[in-house]
Design brief:
By secondary structure, the protein is of the alpha+beta class. It has 14 helices and 23 strands. β1 and β2 form a beta hairpin. The chain is elongated and about 160 Å long. It starts with a strand and ends with a strand. 11% of the residues are buried.
Length: 626
C-alpha cells in the first residue's frame, strides 16, 4: 500500500507549486505536531487531528476526539471511500482531497484554501491560558483589593484603637503585617520598637529620628547646599520625587540613601554613580571651589594636601594651614624642623656607620631605611608619631659632658636647657674652685700651669663665661639644637634663645583615607611612591600625585595612583576602585590634621608648655589643646 502526498502551494501570480512525495504503508497521521506525516501549521488544527488508513481497497478517515473535520460545511468524525470515489474534507484552513491513483495507491492533495488565521490577542489568551475555564479578571481583582484593605488596614487600625479587643493572655501585633521586609542586622535591636523610627502614624521617617541615635555623624556638607547640589531627577524618578514631596517627604533626607526593611541590602549604598550624580556639573547648581569628580580614571582632580604655612612663633601659638594642589609651584611644608631625608638614607657615610654601630641594640641594618623611623599604627592607615625620645635620641643624644657622669638636657624646653647649663657650671665653681689644667678654657695671658689654689672670683667668672659660651654653641646653627631646629636669636647682650615649634602633619589628605597596609604587596616599596632618598629639605612634600610625575633632581619618575587604580568596574591589570575606597560620606571634617602633641596648663599658674607623648593625646583636666 502506498500514499502519494501532493502539496499544493498557490503563488500570488496564480501559478501552482506542486510537490509529490510517496509514503509507503497503510496509515498516515495528520496534525499540527511535527511528528505527523502530514504537518499542518495552523492553530485551528489539533496536534494530532486525524488518522488516514487503508483497509483493502477502501480508505478510511477518523478524527481524534474533539477535532472533527468538515465536509460541505458539516462536521464529521469519520469518512470511508471506495476505490474510484473522490472526496475533499476541510481541516482548519486546509483542504485534503482523496482520489485513487491506481489500485492500492491513494493520492492525498493538501492545499491551504483560507488565509492564515489572524487571531486576536484575547482569542489567543482564551485558547492558551486558563481564562476560558475561570472567572474573568475584574471580579477576583476587586475581591482581592477589598480583602487586602480589610485585612491589612481596617483590622489593624481597629485593633490599635481597641475596637477589636485582645484576650488578656494573648499578644497580637497586627501592624507587623505592614512590614515591607526584614530589618537590617544593624537595626535588629529595634525589631520591636517601630516608634523609634516611625514617630508619627502614616508619616515618613524624618531625620530627627535618625540623629537621636546617630548624633555623632558629621554632615557631608551644609544641609542646604546638599539639597541644592543634588540634580533634579527626570522621568519616572522625577514623578516619584514629586509625589513624595506632595505627601510631605522633603529631598535630602537620610532615608533617601539608607533604606530599611530590605534586610542588609540597601542600608549603605556604595555605588560610585551615586557620588558622580552630584559631583558632575556641581558648578552649575551651587557656588563651590570643588572640581568635578565623576570618574577616578578619567575625571578626577589632582590631590590636594593640607600643609603648614607657619608653625607659630611659640608652642602656644596656633599654626596656620593651607590646602594646596600637589604639583603646584608653592607646595612647601613649613614644619619648623630641619631634616634631610637623603642624608639619613645614605648607604655609606657617617649616618650609615652610626647605624651599624647601633644595630645590635636597635636592630638597624647596614644603613637606615624608612621602617627604622616610620612605623604603621595599629590600623595600618597612618604612621605613629615621630618623637625625639623614641626615634631620634639614640643617635642625637642631648648629653652634657662631665668628668664623672653624663647629664641629659631636656628636649623641647629651651628655658630649662639654658638654666641647667648655667647651674651646672655654677655648681662646678662651688665644688671645685680651681679645675685641672685643660678642663676649663684659659683666658689669653693666663699661666698654662694652673695650680690647685683658691681663686674664687676668677673661677666664678671663668665658669659663667664658659656657661654662656656653651649655651651659644648649643643653639648655634650647627649646634645640638640648631642642627635640627630653627633657633630664634636672643636680644642683644643675652643668651635667652628660643626654638620655633615643630609641627608635623599626620594626615595630609584630610578628605581621604589611604590604607598603607593594603599597599604592602608585590614589589611596591616606599620608594615607589615617596622619593625620600633624593630629598635634602624638610619642606619637600613627598606625596605621589594622581598622574606619574618627574621626581626630584637625581631621581626618576614617581608613579601616580592611576598607574594601578582604575574605576569601579575596571579589570586587571588595573585595580577596581570605588569612591568609598578612599572617601567617606559622614566624616565631617575628617580626621584631625594634627594629633594633639602639647597641652597648656590652664590652672592659672603660668606653667610652661610640655609635650604630650600619648598616641592621640590624653589631655589632662583643664588643659586646652593647641
Amino acid at each position: 500500500m502506498t500514499f502519494i502526498i501532493r502539496q499544493i502551494t498557490r503563488r500570488p501570480s496564480g501559478d501552482d507549486i506542486i510537490r509529490d512525495r510517496e509514503l509507503p504503508g497503510d496509515e498516515v497521521t495528520v496534525g499540527r505536531a511535527t511528528h505527523n506525516e502530514i504537518f499542518l501549521s495552523d492553530l485551528r488544527v489539533g496536534l494530532d487531528h486525524l488518522t488516514i488508513f487503508l483497509s483493502g481497497t477502501r480508505l478510511s478517515v477518523e478524527a481524534e476526539k474533539g477535532h472533527p473535520f468538515t465536509i460541505d460545511g458539516r462536521e464529521q468524525s469519520k469518512l470511508t471511500l471506495s476505490q474510484g470515489n473522490t472526496k475533499a474534507i476541510m481541516v482548519g484552513p486546509f483542504q485534503l482531497s482523496f482520489e485513487a491513483a491506481e489500485r492500492g495507491v491513494w493520492r492525498i492533495s493538501v492545499e491551504r484554501v483560507e488565509p492564515e488565521a489572524a487571531l486576536e490577542e484575547d482569542q489567543v489568551d482564551e485558547i492558551f491560558t486558563l481564562r476560558g475555564t475561570l472567572l474573568g479578571k475584574r471580579l477576583p481583582s476587586w475581591a482581592g483589593y477589598l480583602g487586602a484593605i480589610f485585612l491589612f488596614l481596617a483590622v489593624p487600625v481597629a485593633w490599635f484603637y481597641g475596637i477589636i479587643p485582645n484576650a488578656a493572655d494573648e499578644v497580637v501585633d497586627l501592624d507587623r503585617s505592614w512590614l515591607s521586609g526584614p530589618l537590617s542586622s544593624d537595626h535588629a535591636n529595634l525589631a520591636g520598637e517601630c516608634q523609634a523610627c516611625h514617630q508619627a502614624a502614616f508619616d515618613h521617617v524624618n531625620d530627627y529620628a535618625c540623629i537621636e541615635c546617630h548624633d555623632e555623624l558629621g554632615d557631608h556638607a551644609e544641609p542646604v547646599l546638599l539639597t541644592q547640589a543634588v540634580p533634579d531627577p527626570s522621568g519616572v524618578d522625577g514623578l516619584i520625587t514629586q509625589a513624595s514631596m506632595f505627601f510631605g517627604k522633603e529631598r535630602g533626607q537620610c532615608a533617601d540613601c539608607h533604606r530599611e526593611h530590605n534586610d542588609d541590602e540597601g542600608l549603605i549604598l556604595e555605588a560610585s554613580v551615586l557620588c558622580a550624580d552630584c559631583h558632575t556639573g556641581l558648578h552649575d547648581r551651587i557656588e563651590t571651589d570643588l572640581e568635578d569628580a565623576s570618574s577616578f580614571r578619567t575625571s578626577h582632580p589632582n590631590f590636594q594636601a593640607v600643609l603648614i604655612d607657619t608653625p607659630g612663633a611659640t608652642l602656644g601659638d596656633e599654626p596656620t594651614f593651607r590646602r594646596v594642589p600637589l604639583g603646584s609651584a608653592d607646595v612647601m611644608d613649613n614644619t619648623g624642623l630641619k631634616f634631610p631625608h637623603d642624608l639619613h638614607l645614605e648607604t655609606s657615610g657617617g649616618v650609615a656607620r652610626q647605624a651599624q654601630t647601633l644595630s645590635a641594640e636597635y636592630g638597624f641594618g647596614d644603613a637606615l631605611v624608612c621602617e627604622d623611623c616610620h612605623s604603621l599604627d595599629k590600623d595600618g592607615l597612618l604612621f605613629e608619631q615621630i618623637e625625639m625620645e623614641a626615634n631620634c635620641q639614640m643617635c642625637h643624644a642631648l648629653d652634657l659632658p662631665d668628668e664623672q657622669y653624663t647629664r641629659e638636657l631636656p628636649h623641647g624646653k629651651p628655658t630649662e636647657v639654658i638654666a641647667l647649663i648655667r647651674d651646672y657650671y655654677r655648681n662646678r665653681t662651688i665644688s671645685d674652685l680651681v679645675m685641672p689644667d685643660g678642663s676649663l678654657r684659659r683666658r689669653p695671658g693666663d699661666d698654662r700651669r694652673v695650680r690647685r689654689q683658691p681663686r674664687p672670683e676668677t673661677a666664678r667668672v671663668d665658669a659663667m663665661a664658659i656657661a654662656e659660651e656653651q649655651v651659644a654653641q648649643i643653639f648655634a646653627e650647627k649646634g645640638a639644637c640648631g642642627t635640627c631646629h630653627v633657633v630664634k636669636q636672643p636680644p642683644a647682650g643675652t643668651v635667652d634663645f628660643d626654638i620655633q615649634p615643630v609641627r608635623l602633619i599626620d594626615k595630609f589628605m584630610i578628605h581621604a583615607e589611604f590604607d598603607h597596609d593594603a599597599h604592602d604587596i608585590g614589589d611596591l616599596t616606599c620608594d615607589s611612591c615617596h622619593e625620600a632618598k633624593f630629598s635634602s629639605l624638610s619642606t619637600d612634600v613627598l606625596l605621589p600625585q594622581i598622574e606619574t610625575q618627574a621626581g626630584l633632581p637625581g631621581g626618576g619618575d614617581v608613579e601616580g595612583c592611576r598607574e594601578c587604580h582604575g574605576d569601579e568596574k575596571s579589570r586587571a591589570p588595573l585595580t577596581a576602585s570605588a569612591c568609598l575606597d578612599c572617601h567617606g560620606y559622614h566624616d565631617g571634617t575628617h580626621a584631625p590634621i594634627m594629633r594633639p602633641r602639647v597641652v597648656v596648663d590652664a590652672s592659672g599658674s603660668g606653667g610652661e608648655l610640655s609635650f604630650n607623648p600619648s598616641r592621640w593625646g590624653r589631655i589632662p583636666e583643664g588643659a586646652t589643646i593647641r
